Amino acid sequence: MSTAVLFLAGQTHSTVNPAVELFRQGRHPQALAAFQAQARQGDIQAWGYVGRMYAAGLGVPADPARAVHAYRQAADGGNAAAMASLAGAYAQGRGVPVSDREAAHWYQQAAQAGHVLSMARLGDLYAQGRGVSQDDTLAARWYRSAARAGHVHAMQRLGDLYAGGRGVPDDPAQAVRWYQQAAQAGDPLAMNALGDLYRTGRGVPRSDAHAAQWYLKAARAGVPTAMRNAGYMLRHGRGVPVDTAQAAAWYLRAAQAGDRWVMNDVGLMYQRGQGLPTDPGQAAAWFRRAAAQGDANAMTSLGDLYADGRSVPQSDPDALAWYIRGARAGDATAMKNLGLFAAAGRGRPRDPAVAAAWFLKSAQRGNANAMNLLGDAYVVGDGVRRDLRQAAEWYGRAAGHGQVTAMKNLAQAYEYGQGVRVNLPLAVQWYTRAAGGGDVNAMSSLGRLAATGRGVPRSEATAAHWFRQAADAGQTSAMLELARRHEQGVGVPRDAAQAQAWRDRAAGAD
Question: Residues 270-323: pLDDT tens digits?
Fold first, then answer.
């Protein structure tokens, strides 16, 4: 007979099973003998204890097969916990061959008998299609039953289903509700998921501060994805002050925990000394780890190392091999770099047509630098038929993606009517955007236009301003133009000393 506790008139009266008392005292051999005797008399609970003791090796050498036999006796007698243990044995192949179908059968029996953990496990099997036909609706039904009974994992998984609209309506508010319950109960995956919802504003008002808080809680609880997310927020100042050192620390912890998506970033941080000590060897090691797990960006990073000879012997063939791997894995930067190698004849004979083909593939995947390079190819007819209209179109696409050199090239096209109609206001607009992005040629072009009054009101002072910007950025011709202006007093005070100083800087720049 198992332990029975009765509460009568405010007093507790207990009938204690001697076998259970022996078990609690840690006298496992004696407890096992007592449970076995009770089991032979048909005591279902005793069979459950016998299974548990054989499974864990308590009072007897561990024997998974005997544990399964005992669990089956108890399960056949209606013991829900034994049904769950039997399901676990089939799921993990302990004492029986692995069988997802048998595991699903026994979890179903246990769940229907009210065993909460089995409800959650059954939800997992339906979600994954293991041992049963994949069915998100049934997964949601069992997760909901377990979640309402307080099972934290089921709350988190039910949140996932509502967030993705799988088996239930797409309902971010319901996702938030279940994630919050799970997070408050300590589930770190739910904490990370709440971070995602606050970052994107789904089901809750968008808040980087709340997102960062949840990511950090989940990261401290050991979730690698949350470590990466926390690092991202710290690196970019999203909801928290920028802290490159802390960002690098979280990225490194995520990478060390096996998050392949952050390994390349860790390599780059070691390479650039951003939050981590500059260490080319560590950079290369992390690039290799990421590449070995299929990270296309890391393959490209390794190609860059070989192309430049950083921490590895310079080798165009090795660089080319890594770029090819990265391109095959879908990395647009690798495709662009293959175009550059083909255009320059690095690693193989020069082939402008191959270069243009790689630039096109990269551009079609959204690489703005490749779009600009493709525009250059159309301007000179290198690997493609010369076509200024196509050149202007690609410069426009690249400029729209924020590529600064393309903004300057597009401005030149509008100024001189290359592939587009002359449009000086648009030319000035694009030169100005390019100059704001640091393009020195755009700065000096704005100076030239201001000096002649083309597209803007004529103003020698404005012209001098732009030439000064270009000169400060290192353009020799702008330095000489400033020297001339100071010598003649055009747009700036006449000043022989300043004129000579700019000539000297220009000579030094040469």
Answer: 999 999 999 999 999 999 999 999 999 999 999 999 999 988 999 999 999 999
Q: How far apart are CA 156 and CA 144, in angstroms?
A: 10
Task: Give residues with Cβ within 8 angstroms of 99, minimum separation 6.
Answer: 90, 131
Residues 6+ apart with CB under 8 A from 244: 234, 235, 274, 275
- φ/ψ (deg, to 5) at 350: -60, 135
* Pair of tokens at residue 147: 């979640």
Q: In whole angstroms, what is the distance from residue 130 CA to residue 102 CA?
A: 10
Reduced to 3 states (helix: H, G, I; strand: E, B; else coil), residue 14 is strand
346 in Cβ contact with 358 (< 8 Å): no
- Give CA–CA dist 146/366, Å, rounded: 45
7 beta partners = 12
Q: How confident is the model at residue 257 (pLDDT cuts 50, 70, 90)?
A: very high
Please answer whether residues 379 and 412 qualify as being in contact, where contact means their C-beta atoms are separated by less than 8 angstroms. Answer: no
| Distance (Å) of CA 146 to CA 119, 137, 155, 156, 158 | 5, 14, 8, 11, 10
Side chain identity at residue 112, one-letter code: Q
Query: 178 is written with which tokens?
Result: 């279940």
CA distances from residue 133 to 100, 102, 103, 146 in whole angstroms, order as listed: 11, 14, 13, 20
Q: Are 326 and 296 in contact (CB under 8 A)?
A: yes
DSSP string, 238-262: SSS---HHHHHHHHHHHHHTT-HHH
- Crossing angle of helices 404-416 and 388-400, rounded to 10°: 140
Listing DSSP states for 105-149 in one string gives HHHHHHHHTT-HHHHHHHHHHHHHTSSS---HHHHHHHHHHHHHT
- Chain centre distance of CA 503: 51
Task: Give the list of residues 6+ apart from residue 400 with CB closer than 8 angstroms, or none.
Answer: none
Q: Are 53 and 28 in contact (CB under 8 A)?
A: yes
Place of tokens 């299974």: 51
Q: What angle do CA 100, 102, 103 make, to 5 degrees?
A: 60
CA atoms of 410 and 269, how far apart (whole Å) = 34
Distance (Å, whole) CA 83 – CA 60: 22
Q: How far apart are CA 74 and CA 189, in angstroms?
A: 35
Contact 274, 248 (CB under 8 A): yes
Q: What is the pLDDT of residue 498?
A: 95
pLDDT in tens, 333-361: 999 999 999 999 999 999 999 999 999 99
Is the CB of residue 506 less than 8 Å from the CB of residue 476?
Answer: yes
Cα-trace Rg, the chain: 35
3-class DSSP state of 15: strand
Q: Quickly count: other Cβ atoms within 10 Å of residue 503's Cβ.
A: 17
First-to-last C-alpha distance (Å) of the chain? 99
